Input
Amino acid sequence: MSLTVVDMHTGGEPVRIVTGGYPPLPKGTILEKRAHVRDTLDHLRRLLIYEPRGHFDMYGALLVEPDLPGGDLAVLFMHNEGYSTMCGHAVIALGRYAVDEGLVARVEPVTTVNIECPCGMVVASVEVKDGRAGAVSFESVPSFLFARDLAVDLEPYGRIVFDIAYGGAFYALAECRQFGLEFGRNRVRDFVDAATALTDRVKREHPPAHPDAEDLGFLYGTILTDGGDGSGGVPTRNVCVFADAEVDRSPTGSGVTARLAAMHARGGIAPGETRLFESIVGSRFTGSVARTLVLADGRPGIAARVGGRAHYTGRAEFWLEEGDELGRGFLVR
Output
């Protein structure tokens, strides 16, 4: 048994795209496929994402057969804890990959790639010039502010005020200054500890719910921000800590979407305005409100557009040698 992959990164965040080796999956919805992979094939996630082939913060994408009409491809996202519902940095990489690999017909100046994600259909727009794929933007699923100005007393930080917003996954959003943190001054470890503490508390006391599917109703992580809005050409910095304290090196596509939904609900951004979002490694995504909408339960929401660039880092073939128990995957943090 061997697994083949193409490795990419978007804004510094890895994307390990599985190109071969997984057994065929049964037909069904993408959430059913996600459950099947989680329940019966999770040893393959550990083999690809964990050490010695990966690391604590590795991220993966498994292409599967689309179920929704019009889907060019479908994807299951993998990380150190399990399987996500949405991943913007992976969508940006997959948009370029789909064009480069001929999974869709190449059209200049923009090729559209319909990517079915566990949260729904995400439409990627890939810039193409002289046959080469470049920058990618995507319009995400309906996103919304779930709860505003919640507060908890969080040891040892004190009273923390935060929002919960959905951008394909649910995040708690909080300004880092409440934790005594400042970008460029504090260690990443300090941000991870603060974000993880808030995530754990919110999961217990304020669990979110999605109006369309129970499987989407879980808190994915916490995003700590500098309090800016990304206007005037001045980027707003944030760090996303998700899954099992995994740190996103990119500005986080689904996180930017969630931030845009919260900003719009607060009257901080109008449709058509573009904002800049910067990660802890200095990479940037653009974000805008493509349009407003109303969700099935009557809740106001938005469709966001997020843009960035992905790059290739290599191709590999992995296997498990007989008798190699550590090769099945482990993590050291």
Q: What stands out?
A: The mean pLDDT is 96. Residues 2-139+312-317 form a domain with the Diaminopimelate Epimerase; Chain A, domain 1 fold (CATH 3.10.310.10). The helical segments are 30-40, 42-49, 88-100, 188-205, 253-265.
